[in-house]
Amino acid sequence: MTLSTDAALLHWGERLFYPGNRRVPNAAPRLRGSPAQRAAALRERIAALVQRRAPQVMVKVTGGGRGMCAITAHFHYISKHGRLPIEDERGDVVQGREELDLLVDEWRWGGSPIEEHTTRREAYNIMLSMPRGTDPSIVQRATREFAHLELADHKYVMVLHDHQANPHVHLSVRAESNHGHRLNPRKADLQRWRETFAERLRGWGIEAEATPAATRGVQGRDEALWQRQARDQQRLRREVIRRPIAIAPSHFSARQAWARIGQVLVRSKNSLDRNLARDLANFMEGRPRFAVPRLSPQRSIEKGLRDRPSEHRR
């Protein structure tokens, strides 16, 4: 590994794994440490994606309460009417119907009063999930740390659901903060939330990734849900002509960055880098949106091997 290899890896790797942080330097999480340490962290992220196929976290806004009637119903749903413990932003845990009623009153009158019915969204419901087999207690700890980082100054409650296939935590957060600022999560915020949650899980020893969709080479669905269901149930009377989905500019940028990284790794003197380059080529071949006409990722790697400078050449 040379300084030039690490520098090129940092340049292109940050475009793939930390795109938001290039525009917002203070966004979290971000690469930290010396250039060598940051390059090593990027190699680990690349290996987790293209070699080990680490699971992707899910952070999803499932809805939100427009008034205390909807918020109360959601509290009852996630706590199974008080049977499951509910933890708030202070770390206090309540359980039972009476405690649940007190919590509802606290939300109703704490800060600006929330009407029973309103057109304004007063709470956001968020679900954080990991695949089957993940330790539910770790999912809960990572969610707790995520909420402390991302939802500071907001009232929120969280309930762990570990009785279903995928362990997940339901998180309900009051839209208005203690200082009167309102939460309004956008697409960039959701990606940052995924990154924060994945980083917290890795801190507890759970392999997890929050790779942007463009970096993974995925974009939406090629087929509508109703079409797929009708076909599975043999109710589709005629095939719907599917128009190819235009490849977004972000996918072109990702393909370019991956190609550059592959060229950098395949020219490295380190055998682990070259092995990673070959796995990267296989990864790209499995992603149609990364397919390059007349030159497959594998051929690109092979071309890099042929063009690799001689050991005697500077």
From TrEMBL:
InterPro entries found in the cross-reference section: Endonuclease_MobA/VirD2
Region (Disordered): 291-314
A Pfam family recorded for this sequence: Relaxase
Amino acid composition bias (Basic and acidic residues), ranges on this chain: 300-314
Domain MobA/VirD2-like nuclease: 118-199
Protein name, entry field: Conjugal transfer protein TraS
